[in-house]
Amino acid sequence: MHAESGDPVAVESDCSFTRARRLRRPRDFAAVLAAGRATSLRLAGEWLSVTAAWSDTMPYGTRLGITVSKRMARRAIDRALVKRIVREAFRLSAPGLEQQASAVRVRVDISVRMKRPVGVPGDPRRPALPTWRRALRTEVDQLLGSVAARLATVNLHA
Questions:
Q1: Residue 135 and which of 8, 43, 117, 153 are 20 to 30 A apart at CA?
Q2: pLDDT tens readout for residues 83-136
Q3: pLDDT at residue 123, as a whole number
Q4: Distance of CA 21 to the CA centre of its chain
Q5: Are 112 and 33 in contact (CB under 8 A)?
Q6: Is pLDDT at 154 greater than 90 in this prediction?
Q7: Pairing mode, if any, of strands 107-114 and 48-55?
Q8: Among 132, 142, 44, CA closest to 93
Q9: Using an 8 Å Cβ cutoff, are 150 and 52 in contact?
Q10: 67: which strand partners?
């Protein structure tokens, strides 16, 4: 609520990561991963892989699911960090993604998975925390940008 007028602020509701924007059930994740090439996009970076699938199912918009296994990040603090960074990047890009999805009248489900183990502290292969955080954020921003660019070319209703 806006402190002065009592009116809800539209920007806050547009940027929140609500239940409607989450993939929650295993079958939702499975559907994204099983989508055919004509209706999906698979991308990978150094740390993360993204699978986006679209359909003409109502309601139009975007949903996000994140998978970070113990095998990829042993410590819970590392798994939580990855999820937090991905959620924040999605939260900021969601209005643009949803606008794009609504324009082409599709629902986009995005699954983000960590694909490379981070290692435990003290491991010489483990990157420094600030470096790793920046790398994750840059990578997820690029991957979500690629999803948005691909959405511009989707034409299910031709």
A1: 153
A2: 999 999 999 998 889 888 888 888 999 999 999 999 888 888 899 999 999 999
A3: 87
A4: 10
A5: no
A6: no
A7: antiparallel
A8: 142
A9: yes
A10: 113
What is the structure's pLDDT at 6?
41
* Structural element, H or E, at residue 139: helix 129-151
Structural domains of the chain sorted by starting position, each given as residue range(s) with its CATH number in brackets: 50-151 (3.30.230)
Q: Is 89 in contact with 144 (CB distance < 8 Å)?
A: yes
Q: How many helices (H) and strands (E) does the chain have?
A: 4, 4
Structure tokens at 126: 């483990």
Beta bridge partners of 41: 52
Q: Six-digit token pair at 69?
A: 């296994």
